[in-house]
Amino acid sequence: MMSFAAFFMRTLTHSADLPLKLFAIGRNYTPLPKESFSDAVCQSTQIRIFGAASNDKEAFNLFQEFEKISQNAYKSLGISFRLVRNPAADLDLSDSLKTEIQGQGTSLNKPITLSSIQLQNDFISRRLMMQHKKNNSDSSYLYTVYGKFFNMSATMTNSK
């Protein structure tokens, strides 16, 4: 989310350009649990997605579209998965809704998260001044959707 948020921070996007649908592919470095090595990290390649809309209805439509794209990607690879909607108690402060796609871990007896999609409404954009404006109207805040769309390491260990 940070790279997308930094790009749109303190900007005014024209409403005609909405909804926005962006993605980025890059490496992600995650520290391993303290029980393993002291300074070790786990490297993976991930696809991250970002969407911005002018209102909550458009943002929810983006959220559903990103869910379907993610599900279709895993179906086309032949990877079994389950769709999990997180309860309100498990959401971050910025999230209004969160869905995870989970697959069964090969070496663990618990599911692993393959991807996640979060509907954040205008929580982030209010703090970072990410706004949109129609021709001569007042500006209003963007409604954002963010996701870790595809984690290559988790997916490859989960494939048949």
List the SSEs and their pairings.
Blueprint: H1 2-8, E1 12-14, E2 20-31, E3 41-53, H2 56-76, E4 82-85, E5 97-104, E6 111-121, H3 123-128, E7 131-133, E8 140-141, E9 143-151, H4 152-158
Parallel strand pairs: 1-7
Antiparallel strand pairs: 2-3, 3-9, 4-5, 5-6, 6-9, 7-8
* Total beta-strand segments: 9
Percent strand? 35-45%
Largest sheet: 6 strands, antiparallel
Rg measurement, Å: 17 Å
Give the N-terminus to C-terminus distance in angstroms.
Answer: 30 Å
If you average the pLDDT, what whole number results? Answer: 84
- What's the quaternary structure here? single chain
Please work out how many helical segments DSSP would assign. Answer: 4
Helix content: 25-40%
Query: Which class do the helix and strand fractions yield?
Result: alpha+beta
* Spans where pLDDT lies below 50 across 5 or more residues: none
Widest beta sheet: strand line-up: 2-3-9-6-5-4
SSE arrangement, N to C = HEEEHEEEHEEEH
Shape: globular
Task: Report on the architecture of this protein.
There is one protein chain. With 160 residues, the chain is of the alpha+beta class. Helices cover 26% and strands 41% of the residues. The protein is built from four helices and nine strands, in the order αβββαβββαβββα. It has helices at 2-8, 56-76, 123-128, 152-158; strands spanning 12-14, 20-31, 41-53, 82-85, 97-104, 111-121, 131-133, 140-141, 143-151. The chain has a six-stranded antiparallel β-sheet with strand order 2-3-9-6-5-4. A three-stranded mixed β-sheet has the order 1-7-8, with no helix packed on it.
